Amino acid sequence: GAGVSQSPSNKVTEKGKDVELRCDPISGHTALYWYRQSLGQGLEFLIYFQGNSAPDKSGLPSDRFSAERTGGSVSTLTIQRTQQEDSAVYLCASSFYGDSQTQYFGPGTRLLVL
Amino acid sequence: QQQVKQSPQSLIVQKGGISIINCAYENTAFDYFPWYQQFPGKGPALLIAIRPDVSEKKEGRFTISFNKSAKQFSLHIMDSQPGDSATYFCAARVQGAQKLVFGQGTRLTINP
């Protein structure tokens, strides 16, 4: 079946602009995660959604970052007033509820802030 | 402290050799330890995982060794092949939570 898809695959923006990154999880997966992967670094947890429960936003680095998940499926990560340090690969993953050890990752969106 | 420290950062192994990647943690509230494999341009994919009540798990050429008292775990790749060249991440799941804490990654290169 189809895996996790993310769009765009690449995004170049100017400092100060807002960007929106999209994630389509695997059908049937109620859990959705966003991570950030900076060059040479591991994956940094950003936010977790599960069904209609309040999201775990504990990893969001600043209030410029926000995310929503509409209809329990597609998710959008928004970065406002982008900074150069926001440049990274943003990865989305999904899983069945309670199976967070088995996350399926999308290919990521490579964001470059000039 | 919810951190997982991974070493080495990069590793070069000859074809047929054994690749070993190590991870250490401090938080005893981790309840699951997966390893993910990432090829360039792709997202990470689950490779193998272990629970802390098991000391070793083997799947084909891949083995996780887990030392609970030392708070360390490692990935061993036997008979390493060029196709194993990738970045490997260890991770740990926070007990009662639904998020993974990842190590910094190891870029593995297998020379033919």
Question: How would you characterize the overall build of this protein?
Answer:
- The complex is a heterodimer of chains A (114) and B (112).
- By secondary structure, chain A is mainly beta.
- Chain A is built from no helices and 10 strands.
- In chain A, a hairpin with a 5-residue loop joins strand 6 (65-69) and strand 7 (75-79).
- The radius of gyration of chain A is 13 Å and the shape is globular.
- The mean pLDDT of chain A is 93.
- By secondary structure, chain B is mostly beta strands.
- Chain B has strands spanning 4-7, 10-14, 19-25, 30-38, 45-50, 56-59, 62-67, 72-77, 86-94, 100-102, 106-111.
- In chain B, the strands form 2 sheets. In chain B, strands 2, 4, 5, 9, 10 and 11 form a 6-stranded mixed sheet that branches.
- In chain B, a hairpin with a 2-residue loop joins strand 6 and strand 7 (62-67).
- Chains A and B meet through strand 4, strand 5 and strand 9 of A and strand 4, strand 5, strand 9 and strand 10 of B.
Properties at a glance:
heterodimer; A: 114 residues; mainly beta; 4-stranded antiparallel beta sheet; 10 strands; 0% helix; globular; B: 112 residues; 6-stranded mixed beta sheet
Summarize the structure.
The complex is a heterodimer of chains A (114) and B (112). Chain A has strands spanning 5-7, 10-13, 19-24, 31-37, 43-50, 65-69, 75-79, 88-95, 104-105, 109-113.
Q: Approximately how much beta-strand content do the residues of chain B carry?
A: over 45%
Measured as a percent range, the helix fraction of chain B is under 10%
Shape of chain B: globular
Mean pLDDT of chain A: 93
Q: For the report, how would you describe the main beta sheet of chain A?
A: 6 strands, mixed
